[in-house]
Structures are given as structure tokens and as C-alpha cells.
Amino acid sequence: MSTLTATAVAHPNIAFIKYWGNRDDALRIPSNGSISMNLESLATQTRVTFDSHLPEDIFDLNGTRQSGPALKRVVSHLNLIRGIRGTAIHAHILSENNFPTGSGIASSASAFAALTLAVTTALGLQVGEKDLTRIARRGSGSACRSIPAGFVEWNAGETDRDSFAFSIAAADFWDLTDCIAIVEAAQKKVSSTEGHSLAGTSPLQEARVQDAPRRLDMCRNAIQTRDFAALASILELDSTMMHAVMMTSTPPVFYWEPATLNIVKAVAAWRKSGIPAAASIDAGPNVHIICETRAAENVAQRLSSLPAVKEVLVSKAGGPTVLK
Ligand code: PMV
């Protein structure tokens, strides 16, 4: 082997039913299943070049050479795939996000989805979609949901083999938009990897996990029947349940800022007045407002006029991870 290269593009996703806590931290087998929507306008593009002359792996992100934990995480994902291929050749990884760096938008899902497809392709491995999702999952749990198209379910499973993601509807099946209200661009203080390991310390996690199949059914049905009212109520409940677990972990994790709650309340009032919009929050203070696309311009304008909102990013449902 001399040089082998491939480029892949992946979108981040927003979970309607959230993943929080693992049955197995090392293999990232989640405690519960989850459902998400890929975000078309946001993307990570990653080029991988394996070169037998490289003495070590190199990782450049948005033009900056990476070291420390960021490099280590990428190298361990490379090692996983090199192990499957049976090679020790090093790689140069060149990754760019089209969304503002440090906007507070989690990029690990699109990062590990793009990395998985680029690395397996560059190494000449023939990997089907299901197995790609299993490999991506090992880099970042939510990355498995960025591999398939549109609206995606992650079957929690119990082992490495049966924990995988699949598309439940194409991106154009339902015209939904995510308006992301950025209230704080700083990096989150508690990483999701650390947060997952704390989930089991909350007395509420067991109830949250037990009830997950019911919420998954409601969410899947809402998508399949394009029932926005049903989707709105289950995704808001699910997000609040996850944050209740976070806030009651030992030590507790409070991702919300005062502005976060203000937005959640504003969105509830807008919905009451007939605007099809609902709020969901990941491991940070920013708020994802899922709405029917016909209401997106109105929602984005209303969000922009709230004093604590620094920026609003807008994205429709997106496709799968692809080669470029
Ligand atoms: O994939 P991770 O380890 O970054 O975890 C993602 C966790 C949440 O974004 C909070 C929820 C989810 O399902 O995406």
C-alpha cells in the first residue's frame, strides 16, 4: 500500500427521542433506543489519506492541527477500523464543518459518521449501511444515526451486533425544519461521554429507560402519520425527561441557562397560538425548535427577536452520509 484516499460528507442529527446513558460505555451500547432527524444544511466533510510513509496519524479540524483528547479519540476510531482491515498504516484526516466552529452545535455525530465512511472506503472495506452504523456508533453513539437517510431509529440492542441504526422515513417524507437558537457558543462543560456515564446515578434514569419503548412508538407513529401535535408533545416530554435525569445525577449536570427556559416557554406559547413548533434540548444550553417548514420563517424571526438569542441556524431534514 502507498496512498489510499476517500472523502465523505455527513450531517449532524437532532434526536426527537434521546439517547442518554449506556448499557456498555466502552462499546456505546445505549440504555434506550432513540429517533432523530438528519440536518441537511449542516455538514462535516472529511478526507482521509492513508500513507505508508506517515510515522503517526495527523488530524486537522477546520484548519487547526489537533492534539490531546480530540486526536486520541480519532486515532482510537482509526485503530478500530484498521483492526477490521488488518493494517497498521497511518492516516492524515482533514475535516471541515460548514457550521460555525464553537457555535455550540455538537459535531461528534457528523464527525464520526463521515470518518467511518471515509476510512472504511479508503481501506477498501465493503461495509453495508447497517455495519457502518455499528462502527460509527463506537466513535460517538449518536453518529450511528447520521449514517442512514432522513428520519432514523437506533435500535438499542444488547450487544455490539444488534445495536444499529436504520432509516424509518426519507428526508422528504415530512417537510420539517429545525431552527436552532444559539444562546451560548462556548464548548459544553460536561461532555456527553462523561454525562452518559453519570446517567445511572440518577434515581429517575430507570423510569426514563423503562418508558422509552412507549415514547419510541409514539414518535415513530407521529412521523409515519405526519402528526405534528403528537410529535410535539412526545419530543418535548422526552427532552425534559433527559434533562431531569441530568439534573438529578451525582454530580448533577445543569445544561440549561435562564435563556434556555425562556425559549422553551416562548415556544409553548407560540404553539398554543397555532404555530406548529416544539422545543428540544441536547447536552448544552441551545434550543432546537422543530417546526413544520411552512412556519420556519416565522419561528426563526421570533427567535431572533428574543434578546438572549445570538444566532439562529435553520435546517430541513437531510440525507445520509455519502462519499464525495
Ligand atoms: O453521541 P453522544 O455521545 O454525543 O450523545 C448524544 C447525546 C444527546 O445529544 C444529548 C442525545 C442524542 O440522542 O443525540
What would you say about this model in short?
The protein is an alpha+beta fold. The chain is built from nine helices and 16 strands.
Structural features, described:
The protein is of the alpha+beta class and 324 residues long. The protein folds into two domains: 3-172, Ribosomal Protein S5, domain 2 (2-Layer Sandwich); 176-316, 2-Layer Sandwich (Alpha-Beta Plaits), CATH 3.30.70. It has helices at residues 68-85, 108-122, 129-139, 192-198, 205-210, 212-224, 228-247, 258-272, 296-304; strands at 3-10, 13-17, 22-24, 29-30, 34-38, 44-51, 58-61, 64-65, 91-97, 151-155, 164-169, 176-182, 277-280, 287-292, 311-316, 322-323. It has a six-stranded mixed β-sheet, covered by helices on one side. Strands 2-5-10-11 form a four-stranded antiparallel β-sheet. The protein is globular, with a radius of gyration of 19 Å. The mean pLDDT is 96. The site of (3R)-3-hydroxy-3-methyl-5-(phosphonooxy)pentanoic acid has 16 residues, from helix 2 and helix 4.
CATH class designation of the largest domain? Alpha Beta
Tell me the number of structural domains: 2
CATH architecture of the largest domain: 2-Layer Sandwich
Shape assignment: globular
**Span between N and C termini?**
22 Å
Beta-strand content: 15-25%
SSE run? EEEEEEEEHEHHEEEHHHHHEEHEE
Strand order of the largest sheet: 8-7-9-6-1-16
Q: Please count the helical segments.
A: 9
Structural class: alpha+beta
Radius of gyration: 19 Å
Please bin the fraction of helical residues: 25-40%
What's the CATH topology label of the largest domain? Ribosomal Protein S5, domain 2
Bound chemical compounds: (3R)-3-hydroxy-3-methyl-5-(phosphonooxy)pentanoic acid
